[in-house]
Specification:
The complex is a heterodimer. Chain A is 26% helix and 30% strand. Chain A is α/β, with parallel strands linked by helices. The mean pLDDT of chain A is 95. In chain A, the strands form three sheets. Chain A has a seven-stranded parallel beta sheet, sandwiched between helices. In chain A, strands 8-9-10 form a three-stranded antiparallel beta sheet, with no helix packed on it. Chain B is α/β, with parallel strands linked by helices. Chain B is built from eight helices and 16 strands. In chain B, helix 3 packs across helix 4 and helix 5 packs parallel to helix 8. The chains are: A alpha/beta, B alpha/beta. Strand 13 of chain A pairs antiparallel with strand 8 of chain B. Bound molecules: flavin-adenine dinucleotide and adenosine monophosphate (AMP).
Chain lengths: 246, 322
């Protein structure tokens, strides 16, 4: 089984977000870059578990990004994976990311392409579906459980309307959400091994279809209005008459 | 020209988020001086579709689409968009929309804004606002292609406009069978249970509740308000509540009008899923709980004592309104 895992580089969750004067660029000097949580904890770890259970399988990591993505790619490789590919373009939208990945994957014959649920910077949750469309493959969103069964997968998905059990044959694309796997912590051996794993750089020249015109920050939150516990009932009348939400 | 909106049917009813997407599409259509057309997929009364605020609804009832496979749905949407000269295609940014909208966009090489929270600005460039960096900022994104695809975050704009009088037409797109085999394990939900991602009122509780046996008072308050229930991640991880109730960076993102957080400390990863809420109430016995910094209203005190009193106050308010 050949598995491709899509790895994105994002600012750590606790980063304070601010932008430059043009309002189009994130101020990055103090940003800690990490592997997007759902890519690392769910997609990558489940890929490694499937590899361990299916002898002869390979796990390739792919990132679309500039040379400054390499430390994050090494971080992911420290958890596992045989090799990585970096498509050398600073992407500006999800289509560009998906097209770059699909262009690379087209001739490689992957059985399973895994993405995370959503990036914590772009918050789009769309890249996997675009890759699938560009390769004309089936796609299953937000898997909470993923097993290999015969020549394909069995996926379970939980939702507020009920649960789904979905089966499909290889090749296909799946986005991984909570429950698919448990996070793994890289150990010293993994970190050492990651240094010598091959990272191939491939060129890409496609264009984006959208552009960020400006970023804005949410308005400063007004001071919290405290209500004494003994008058808790007052909250309900404030929500009704002042906030007008009930 | 037209604006096409995808309409999802869940359990024989048009989803609330689809009504929102339809009124969004109607507004965009009037901004552009054209008409909005719905594409509804699933078994539902034609009368319910006629009440949607668009000029025409194409109704697909072919059982081939029953599993809601994004690959076949996207082909149907693309066919309808081409047949109707649609230049803007609108989805709800929910589980189905997240699968179908990007496929349609990729197939048409059309720019997509996923998770729009406001109407587009159409003077000059066509730009759409969305939340980024887990709610810590917004981006105004220009769509630079002729055809534009937008998926709308549920509960962002509400349902506007009057009940429509749409013409409902049967529609049979030509697509091959799904490559997925889908088995739906339909949840037995009571009629008054409100799906969390669509809820405009949410009552949420965390580890401060001590154990699953204490959730009765949370459900009572939610029930009195007509709210959905949610929880923090550890609560779902230890199995006190189902996973689909877990909000935050790794769970569901919600944008309700009112979010009441009870016994939740307010970790940044939790806030990432709820900071789009219009009004936030925090009830915590620890005055130093970080959640108070994000709150609009706060009560310092013991949830076990306060929550039942709030439920009574809500009941009294509701009784006085009738
Ligand atoms: C990468 C990452 C991702 C994460 N993703 C998420 C996520 O998506 N969602 C999420 O929720 N968390 C997430 N977490 C976990 C998060 O950091 C917090 O640990 C978690 O939100 C804490 O849950 P809690 O507030 O219920 O529990 P606690 O932090 O234990 O807080 C309990 C609160 O209850 C209060 N309390 C106790 N008793 C009472 C009482 N009788 N009355 C009133 N108040 C009381 C306490 O004062 C305290 O503030 C993530 C963590 C990481 C590292
Ligand atoms: N630049 C990138 N390189 C590789 N994979 C990516 C990139 N951006 C997004 N992805 C993958 O697509 C998933 C969904 O991202 P998004 O659609 O941006 O929310 C992520 O969880 C990643 O697995």
């Amino acid at each position: 089984m050949k598995i491709l895992v899509c790895i994105s580089k994002v600012p750590d969750t606790t980063t304070k977000i601010s932008f430059d004067e043009s309002k189009t660029k994130l101020n990055t000097p103090n940003v800690q870059w990490i592997v997007n949580p759902s890519d690392e904890w769910y997609a990558l770890v489940r890929a490694l578990e499937l590899q361990e259970a299916n002898a002869g399988s390979t796990v390739t990591l792919i990132n679309v990004g500039g040379a400054d993505s390499e430390p994050v790619i090494r971080k992911a490789l420290a958890i596992g994976g045989d090799s990585a590919v970096r498509v050398d373009v600073e992407p500006t939208d999800s289509f560009q990311v998906a097209d770059a990945i699909a262009t690379y994957a087209k001739s490689e014959g992957f059985d399973l392409i895994l993405t995370g649920k959503e990036t914590i910077d772009g918050n789009s949750s769309v890249t996997g579906a675009m890759i699938a469309e560009l390769l004309d493959l089936p796609y299953i969103t937000l898997a909470n459980k993923l097993d290999v069964e015969g020549n394909g997968v069995k996926v379970e998905r939980e939702s507020e309307y009920g649960d789904q059990v979905i089966k499909a044959s290889f090749p296909l694309v799946v986005s991984a959400a909570k429950g698919v796997a448990d996070a793994r912590i890289p150990n010293m051996r993994g970190i050492m091994a990651a240094r010598s794993k091959p990272v191939t750089v491939v060129p890409y020249s496609g264009a984006a279809l959208t552009s960020v015109e400006s970023y804005t920050l949410p308005p400063e939150k007004g001071a919290v209005k405290m209500i004494a516990a003994e008058n808790a009932e007052e909250l309900i009348s404030l929500l009704h008459t002042e906030a007008k939400v009930i | 020209m037209s604006v096409l909106v995808f309409i999802e049917i869940a359990k024989g009813k048009v989803k609330k988020s689809s009504f929102e997407a339809a009124s969004y599409a109607a507004k965009v259509a009037s901004q552009l001086g054209t008409q909005a057309i719905g594409l509804a997929v699933g078994q539902v009364d034609a009368a319910e579709l006629a009440a949607i605020n668009v000029s025409k609804v194409l109704h697909v009832t072919d059982s081939k689409f029953d599993g809601y496979d994004p690959q076949t749905l996207a082909k149907a949407v693309v066919e309808a968009a081409n047949a109707n000269g649609s230049t803007v295609i609108v989805f709800s940014h929910d589980t189905t929309g997240k699968g179908v909208a990007p496929r349609v966009a990729a197939r048409l090489k059309a720019g997509l804004v996923a998770g729009a929270i406001d109407y587009p600005s159409t003077d000059g460039k066509f730009t759409v606002k969305k939340a980024v960096f887990s709610g810590k900022a917004f981006a105004n994104v220009a769509i630079n292609t002729d055809v534009k695809v937008i998926s709308l975050t549920p509960n962002s704009v509400g349902v506007t406009g009057d009940a429509g009088s749409a013409a409902v037409e049967a529609y049979a797109p030509v697509v091959e069978a799904s490559k997925l085999s889908i088995e739906n394990v339909v949840k037995a939900v009571s009629a008054d249970e409100i799906p969390l991602p669509e809820a405009d009122l949410v009552v949420s509780a965390g580890r401060g509740m001590k154990g699953p046996e204490n959730w009765g008072m949370i459900e009572d308050l939610a029930h009195a308000l007509g709210a959905a229930t949610a929880c923090s991640r550890p609560v779902a991880d230890i199995g006190w509540r189902p996973h689909h109730e877990h909000v935050g960076q790794t769970g569901v993102t919600v944008r309700p009008n009112l979010y009441i957080a009870i016994g939740i400390s307010g970790a940044i990863q939790h806030l990432a899923g709820v900071n789009g809420s219009k009004v936030m109430v925090v009830i915590n016995k620890d005055p130093e709980a970080p959640f108070f910094k994000a709150a609009d209203y706060g009560i310092i005190g013991d949830a076990f004592e306060i929550v039942p009193r709030l439920t009574e106050a809500v009941k009294k308010l509701k009784a006085s309104q009738n």
